[in-house]
Amino acid sequence: MRHRVKTKSFHRRKEHRETLFINLAKSLILNGRIETTLPKAKALRPFIEDLVTLAKEDTIHAKRLLAQRLKDQKVAKKLYTEIAPLFKERNGGYTRIYKLEKRRIGDGGEKALIEFVEYPS
Hey, is 40 helix, strand or coil? Predict the structure, then answer.
């Protein structure tokens, strides 16, 4: 039974899953868009949106929390100096997910493109 289970496990331990989301979030922040599987993109969305909401607060505490959660000071700085100001007037919905027609070669997994909504290309 899946009572009160909100997230997918991706058949990984908690530590491995957290590291996966941190690495996906870093790539998304640095590049503006990433191509991954559809379930990973759907699971990444709440994680990255919480980070952007936190980065919109321009306090030292928020900056330290971002650096702690992302485990990288340079990526956190890019998030709160370049990306968060783009979403000052937006209350949520910072990312969009596109389903891609092509599937992964190895197992046929659905692929998706996740990107920031107002990120300049």
Answer: helix
Residue with tokens 């700085």: 77
The Cβ of residue 43 has, within 10 Å, a number of other Cβ atoms equal to: 19
Q: Residues 8-30: what's their mean pLDDT? A: 95
Closest CA to 113 of 20, 44, 54, 10: 44
Say how many C-beta atoms besides its own lie within 10 A of residue 74's C-beta. Answer: 12
Exposed, middle or buried by CB within 10 Å (0-12, 13-18, 19+), for 80?
buried
Query: What is the number of alpha carbons within 13 Å of residue 42 lying toward its C-beta?
Result: 11
Cα 36 from chain centre: 11
Q: What is the pTM of this model?
A: 0.92
List, in order, residues 6 or more apart from 32 with CB less than 8 Å away.
115, 116, 119, 120, 121
